[in-house]
């Protein structure tokens, strides 16, 4: 049995090709590094005992907050730690620290929790048993069990909602759409999965998918506000099925809710195999991204209210409002606990 607290750290300098169009480090780049650190530590752990060799695939990313922006020229330190294991899954907690190597200033920019499931290399349909870890006290194991049960329940609820579809917007005539409506800002990206997107075993890196999702969400937010926008947080990202090389992925986003200073965008990833076309299109990933709008000084701007045009949009707006209020209450409770 391995001791809790197995660590892994990645460090690299942020270069110009890591930037978004405003010049900060792209939120999708940070999500990609988080997933890379989590994938390394969980795959290493799952292969720590004799038996079938396996690779840990990303199953879920819990809510991730973007606490501070990261800038080009800074060094990102991404540290990952295994905090819970069930029979078939691994929980990894990741912290991201930015370092200005000219001044020595450091700040925590992101915190995330990821869940991985190990798949056998010889038979990807087979899930491998995870080696247990040793907890420093019974309370830690109990807390881990609660987190595991909560994410399992949420994944089941998300699967039930997965019948909902967003048709990819390939050539939208925005001239005919009213500004600030869902239809006006709705956007899509179509991407053919190539070797550079994949693990050594020809399945897409979770981080690659998350970066595409963040790009689409950013396009939706920018079209709605027409200002500088940044990722504030990502609600749980659920990976329902693995995407193989040669698939065409449609990444579609639509505005679901706006508050005075934030906007929620739903992003759905559907995959369509080109070679095994008889398998048909399938829902691969779903998530909700929250963005804020900033002025030239980096201060939050008011968000134009979303104009709702039908009953379905009203329903999604109310669901988004419930998530917004729930997250706000959690943040306040966390703040009080720290005081």
Automatic annotation (TrEMBL):
Q: Which GO terms describe its molecular function?
A: carboxylic ester hydrolase activity; long-chain fatty acyl-CoA hydrolase activity
Q: Which GO terms describe its cellular component?
A: cytosol
Tell me the domain of life: Eukaryota
Output the InterPro entries linked to this UniProt entry: Cytosol_ACT, HOTDOG_ACOT, HotDog_dom_sf, Thioestr_dom
- Its Gene Ontology biological processes? acyl-CoA metabolic process; fatty acid catabolic process
Location comes to: Cytoplasm
The enzyme class is hydrolase
Under Gene3D superfamilies, the record lists: Hotdog Thioesterase (3.10.129.10)
Active-site residues from the entry: 20, 214
Question: Which chain positions lie within coiled-coil regions?
Answer: none
Q: Name one Pfam family in it.
A: 4HBT
Q: State what protein this is by name.
A: palmitoyl-CoA hydrolase
């Amino acid at each position: 049995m391995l001791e809790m607290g197995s660590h892994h750290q990645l460090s690299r300098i942020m270069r110009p090709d890591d930037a978004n169009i405003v010049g900060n480090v792209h939120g999708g780049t940070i999500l990609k590094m988080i997933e890379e650190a989590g994938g390394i530590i969980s795959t290493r752990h799952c292969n720590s005992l004799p038996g079938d060799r396996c690779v840990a695939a990303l199953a879920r990313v819990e809510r991730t907050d973007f606490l501070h922006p990261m800038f080009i020229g800074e060094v990102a330190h991404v540290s990952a730690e295994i905090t819970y294991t069930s029979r078939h899954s691994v929980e990894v907690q990741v912290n991201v620290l930015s370092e200005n190597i000219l001044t020595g200033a450091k700040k925590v920019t992101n915190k995330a929790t990821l869940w991985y499931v190990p798949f056998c290399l010889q038979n990807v349909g087979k899930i491998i048993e995870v080696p247990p870890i040793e907890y420093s006290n019974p309370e830690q194991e109990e807390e881990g069990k609660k987190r595991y049960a909560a994410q399992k329940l949420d994944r089941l609820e998300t699967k039930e909602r997965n019948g909902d579809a967003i048709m990819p917007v390939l050539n939208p005539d925005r001239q005919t759409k009213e500004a600030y409506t869902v239809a006006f800002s709705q956007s899509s990206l179509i991407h053919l999965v190539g070797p550079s997107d994949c693990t050594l075993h020809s399945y897409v890196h979770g981080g690659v998918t998350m970066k595409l999702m963040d790009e689409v969400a950013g396009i939706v937010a920018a079209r709605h506000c027409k200002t500088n926008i940044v990722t504030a947080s990502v609600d749980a990202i659920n990976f329902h099925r693995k995407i193989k090389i040669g698939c065409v992925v449609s990444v579609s986003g639509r505005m679901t809710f706006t508050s005075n200073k934030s906007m929620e965008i739903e992003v759905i990833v559907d995959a369509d195999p080109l070679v095994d076309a008889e398998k048909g299109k399938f829902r691969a990933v779903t998530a909700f991204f929250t963005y804020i709008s900033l002025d030239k000084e980096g201060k939050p701007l008011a968000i134009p209210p979303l104009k709702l045009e039908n009953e379905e949009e009203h329903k999604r707006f109310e669901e988004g409002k419930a998530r917004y209020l729930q997250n706000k209450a959690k943040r306040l409770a966390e703040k009080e606990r720290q005081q």
